[in-house]
Structures are given as structure tokens and as C-alpha cells.
Amino acid sequence: MQAHSTRSSEVGRRRGLRLAIAASILGGGLASAVAAGPTLAATPAPPAPLPALGMNSHAVRESSATFAQEFQLDRAAGSTWTRIDVNWYHLQPTGPGAFEPSYTKVLDQAVASATANGLKVLLTVLGTPVWARAVNTTTAAPPTNVNDYGTVMGLLAQRYAKYPVAYEVWNEANRPATFAGSTATYAQMTCASYAAIKAQGSSIPVVMGATSGTDVTWLGSVLAAGSANCFDVISTHPYSLGKTAYALPASFQPTSTTASVHNLMVSYKVGNKPVWFTEFGWPATLDSLVPSYSGEVTLTEQADYTERFLRWTAANNPYVKVAMMYTALDIADKAGSYEAYMGMLGTDFTQKPVYDRLVSLYAS
User: Fold this and answer.
1) The pTM is what?
2) What is the pLDDT of residue 246?
3) Which of 56, 69, 289, 343 could bridge across to 326 with cysteines, CB 3.0–4.6 Å?
4) CA–CA dist 296, 313 (Å, integer)
């Protein structure tokens, strides 16, 4: 028993010695070599996905050849949406019955052409006809019966049920010059539209807001008036024309107030719904002879600001799922105003630098 104990003690001593030597090696030379060796750089996080790109179109004022070419180029630039303004007073000029044939013929062609080019369509319906508003008022007046507006939205949803079409309740209704009604009336119009559109298809998107700027106060009043369950998307127009905050990337915060819209939505328990920018952009003319005007930037700046805007939005406002540039084409009948030159294309389809920039961001 004693001899066995002695042998066991010797084996244990030798094992302890080997462990001590190994620890010395690991703690010294080998460990130092590992520490001094090359280190792997951390893998950078992938960039945030950009919001889906869209373009604004005045297709119903154009020829079929014009908007067909426009939609082709929109898609080639990476756009997946086109936003078309629809004037209710042209659609139903004399009464609440059938649509005016010549107007709807062009609208039908535009919706079909956009779809054929792989674009989804957002129809923005505004402008109250004479029969639907109070006497001695303009097209900015609200309808005297909000259900008349809801009905026309439902009829459009029925007409275009086989197409990928969404519907936006008015345009920039927070501006009295565009909508001379109260937030309560707008909320009622939204809810009437929602019910009528959803009767034609539960998955058809209903878009509320389209505010000029990011008007949190106005949107809060609309939500407080009972519209929280009457929309799928809130839209805003976060313009900041000219060279204000856009001159340097470090100060580039164009959509910081969009967080306030999202927070407002969260407070009404609809924070899971997305925000869309249904208009954004900068004016830049191809014509050097046009006088300067408020908000003008150079063609290069238009491209740079657009890219920064989209990248900043992706990184900071991930709940913004769609951004629609205003406009696809420069607007010939508004020549001389900044709005005429906000296109990614000239009136003759000349491609501005912003077009190539969008191709590199979305289509390449």
C-alpha cells in the first residue's frame, strides 16, 4: 500500500509540473504571440434599406404617349410607385352619378399604363365640385355631405379593383388654400373613405394626411377627432427647399420632425402603421436662361440632396416605407415657378443628374 502511494505521489508531482509548464507557455510566449497577432476588424453593419421609391405624376393632364414614356423611365430609375392627382370636380362635374367619360378615359389609361410598367398607383383625390359644396365657395371647400366624398372614393376603388391602387384622402388639407374645412370634417371624410374603399377590398391601402410639411399639430387634431382606425398609412410632405440644412452632411437632418409624427401615432396606438412621404424634392432647372427663384439648387445639388435625404431617412426613420419624389417630369405649364423644375426629367425627358443617382441607388 505504501509503495503504491509513493508511485501515485510521483505521478501527481510530474503531472503538476507539466501543467505548470503549459501554463507558463500559454501565459507567456504563446499568449503574447496571440495578443500581438493581427486582429479581425468588426464587420460593419449593412446600410439600412432605403424606402421604396415613388414619383409624382400629373398623368391626367398629359397625353397617353407622354405618361407611357414617363412610367417606363420611372421604373428604370427604380421607382415602384406613381402618385396621380385626381380632381373630383372633373370626375363628377355635374352630380354624384356616373363619372365624366373623357376624364376617366385618360385616368383609366394612366392606371393601366403604370401597372403595365410595374408601378403601383396612389390616387390622390381632391377638389370639391359645385354640386357637393356650399354656394359661393371654391374647390377647396369641404363637401357639405362627407359621404359624397366617401362614395366617390369607393367608386374609384371598385373601378380599379383589379389594379394595385392605393387612395389618399385629399392633398395638403392642412393648408386653408387647399382645404377650407376643419380637422373634424377631414377626419369624417377619411372615415367615410375608409369604409367605402375597404368594402371593395380589405387590403386596399387608405392614406391619410398628405400634410404640407410635417404638421404634427394638425395631424394630432385629426386623430383626436376620431380617425385613428380609418387609415393604413399617414403621409407627409417634408419639404425644405433651398440650401438650408442640406449644404453639409453633418447638418443634414431633413426629416427629424418625422419622429414626432411616429410618436404621435404611438400615442394613439397606431405606431405599427407606416409613414409615407408622398412628396419631397428640390427644384433644379436644365435651362440656364431661367431666372433664379426661391428654393433653386443646382442640378448636382438636386442629386446630392436627394441621395442624402433617402439615406438619412433610412437610417433615422425606419418606419418611413415609401418616399415619392415631386415630380417625375418638369411641369411645362408652371414655367417660371420653382414647382416647374422639380422633376428628375425635363419636359422633353432629358435625364437630370438625379435620374442617374436614383438608378445607382435603386436599379443597379
Assistant:
1) 0.86
2) 46
3) 56
4) 22
